[in-house]
Amino acid sequence: MKEIIQQEPLIQIAVTIENVFSSSEEESCNYDLREGSKHDFASAISSKLKESIKQEVEKWIIKGIERGFVKGIEKGKIEEKYNIARNLLSMNMNYEDISKVTGLSIEEIKKL
Is the dihedral of CA 91, 95, 101, 105 positive or negative? Predict the structure, then answer.
């Protein structure tokens, strides 16, 4: 019988519950306190873990926003160079001078 109890987790739980209900009131109270402490400990760990995960997610979000902001600024700077080059082309400025002003290569300017 003990072998079956040891092999089956659900039977172990049932035997533990039976022992609690058949024990004295003092033993029952002690059991409740132990189980409550286990629950409180698990709850505290769960709460700390959730908070830690939340903080990490917030860090990732902030990093993503920062990266997006930097990329947006870089893209805007490049687009501005192309706009300036287009304006200078419309003023009949030569490719070499436009390249010097904008930092774009002559090949990039010719594609405009």
Answer: positive
pLDDT confidence of residue 23: 59
Structure tokens given for 66:
């920062």
d(CA 91, CA 86): 9
Q: Which long-range contacts (CB under 8 A, 24 or more apart) does 91-95 make?
A: none
**Number of domains, the chain:** 1
Domain of residue 75, residue span: 2-111
In angstroms, the Cα distances linking 83 to 27, 45, 79, 89, 103 are 83, 57, 6, 10, 12
112 confidence band (pLDDT: 50, 70, 90): confident
DSSP symbols for 13-47: HHHHHHHHHHS-HHHHHHHHHHHHHHHHHHHHHHH
**Separation of alpha carbons 99 and 112, rounded Å:** 12
Q: What is the mean pLDDT of residues 24-37?
A: 67
